Amino acid sequence: MTEVGQSIIRHFINIPIMISSWFIFFFPVESGFLISSAVALGVYVVSNFSIKKLQRRSIMKKHQLTLSEYFHIQKQLKEANKKIQALNSHYLKVRSISSFKQLFEMTRLAKRIISLVKTNPRKFYQAERFFYAHLDSAVELTTKYTFLVSQPVKDIEMKIALQDTRDTLQSISAVMEDDLKDVLSADIEHLKMELDFAKLSVGTKENPLYLKGESEHERKFSKHK
Question: What is the pTM of this model?
């Protein structure tokens, strides 16, 4: 479940708790409006913190992560989101449709990898090169490219530098595609196993096992008895 989904669940649980606590302290206890409101707010904060901690423990247990691993992955995800924002800021700075498409594809791949790791933090270890190197290179080169392309000077040396940067960004995009395949590799293997099992089940149904010495005619005869 995503962080947004977890947050919605917490609010869905905590708001009724907060309202109930306010009514309890305002009417039966007669603490007054301000005190009841303050206590209800405190109950909300404590309840939200407790549920968030339980959700975190559940994720760690499900994906077999230690506390330090969990916090490290969350930190890397936050930094990656900032880098995505940096890439998004360059859309209006590119000067050609091909460069725009290249930036769009690269950003799309990066967002997909981040989304998969958010859903399953364990997948971070299949995408470490993406988080530690490839995304940084994409941001740095895109920033330099948009800076150079905005300059009025367009001599041969500048054109060569721009073309070289575009080619390198294309290579980074291809590497990011490999990163995405690495993240999805376990899912693909699991799907293959499920398909093999399904094919085996269908094959067994179409070709049922016979007892030793039993013929197909005897099997049909026994069914009609």
Answer: 0.74
